[in-house]
Amino acid sequence: MQAANTGKRTVISIRPVFDSDRPKVYLETYGCQMNVNDSEVVVAIMQKAGYSVTKNIGDANLILINTCSVRDNAEQRVWGRLEYFRQEKKKRPNVSIGLIGCMAERLKESLLENNIVDVVVGPDAYRELPKLVEKTESGQKGINVLLSRDETYSDISPVRLDKTGVTAFISIMRGCNNVCAFCVVPYTRGGERSRNPETVLRELKELSDNGYREVTLLGQNVDSYSWKDVTFAGLLAMVAESAPEMRVRFSTSHPRDMTDDVLKTMAKYGNICNYIHLPVQSGSSAILQSMNRKYTREEYLQRIKTIREIMPDCAVSTDIIAGFCGETQKDHEDTLSLMREVGYDFAYMFKYSERPNTKAARHFKDDVPEDVKIRRLTEIIELQSELSLTSHKKDVGSIVEVLVEDTSKRSENDLCGRTPQNKTVVFPKGNNKIGDLVKIKITDCSQATLKGFAISGLLT
Ligand code: SAH
Ligand code: SF4
Ligand code: F3S
Fold this sequence. Notes:
CATH architecture of the domain at 3-144: 3-Layer(aba) Sandwich
CATH superfamily of the domain at 3-144: Methylthiotransferase, N-terminal domain
Largest sheet: 6 strands, parallel
Bound molecules: S-adenosyl-L-homocysteine, iron/sulfur cluster, FE3-S4 cluster
Distance between the termini: 40 Å
Shape: globular
Number of strands: 23
Structural class: alpha/beta
Helix content: 25-40%
Radius of gyration: 23 Å
Number of helices: 13
CATH class of the domain at 3-144: Alpha Beta
Strand content: 15-25%
């Protein structure tokens, strides 16, 4: 990490180093936001060890692939990429290939058998990466997949890889202590541990000093954050107060663990976005029980009611799994009716994918036929499209505050950003630029985006 003296204050550089004289690392990331943030930690570690970053795989001395195991298709994508890397290695035998992250943790030594991968490193062993890569220079393989009880990388300032410098992640905890029957994460990421709040605030200050305008606090279950007497609600308040100029988001909340204190803290601070990602997984209490989610349909709906009482304008999104073991047509219909009842603003929807060694794989049969899973998932996706459109239509005619994150993918003349409720807005650029907070009058929508024009300056 370099410190540059700007005259006013010392700013830590959290941007990637591109330097032609250094060995170069090329990194690809799959999986969740935590994996994206872990890649930023990995780059910080590799930069400190003398590497620079390259976006061109053909220039790389080291290719890293940060992987996900959550569903079989996530792993299949990685196998596909490894075949491509095999070609790269044929052209340049000196290039080293490292497979890191959740798949490394799940499949361990077996990943070294294919003669593509040189280094395998699990999510808690990234500090060892430079040493293990060094071994490959003498033709050896390197592996470390030990899980840790206390590693949080809290002293490492992640090197931010996004290009726009507006939004960033801070991991506030690692691992998970829940045992949802379908889920591989507790096995790939180990037990839950929270991070010292002082180090969270230090990282927040670095982001703020570097001009970032939004932070998302990450954990598999943020509501069980705990450091001495600091709860998640307490941490959220500290973050919101320390960076009043920044928007604050968080993910993921667990319906059983989310407290009213968190909701009240969200309502109290204007810079905490009124948006909650609250994965339900299923609308059937019987399925929720076999999933070991530890709440019923009714308890979930009660949570939603409380959210709406405390924050009437709060948006809610969810995760849903179609076709879990033993799911009947009636269970599926319960999921559809719950979706309608909540009126989700957005959802991530998946077909159940059995993961080896999970509770479900050990105790239940993956007995919903593939064609039925596909049909149910399609129905869920179609319903959510309707719900998303309904949610967006309600915003037409209103004025929303948008943090500009990028140029629109469709047109250079448009900018895009999100509302506090996490809805994507596209509007003509005018004099506005990336990083601005702009008031937008919404005039039109689709199920995916809101469209409008900037009225900043007209309002006080
Ligand atoms: N910690 C978060 C989610 C982590 S995984 C939480 O508790 O909600 C992200 C999502 O992937 C899950 O919410 C679930 O919907 C989905 N998922 C996890 N395992 C899966 C599996 N075996 N098959 C299909 N979807 C799965
Ligand atoms: Fe997986 Fe459940 Fe932990 Fe989320 S809370 S990571 S779904 S075990
Ligand atoms: Fe994330 Fe996938 Fe691992 S969802 S925690 S990268 S298994």
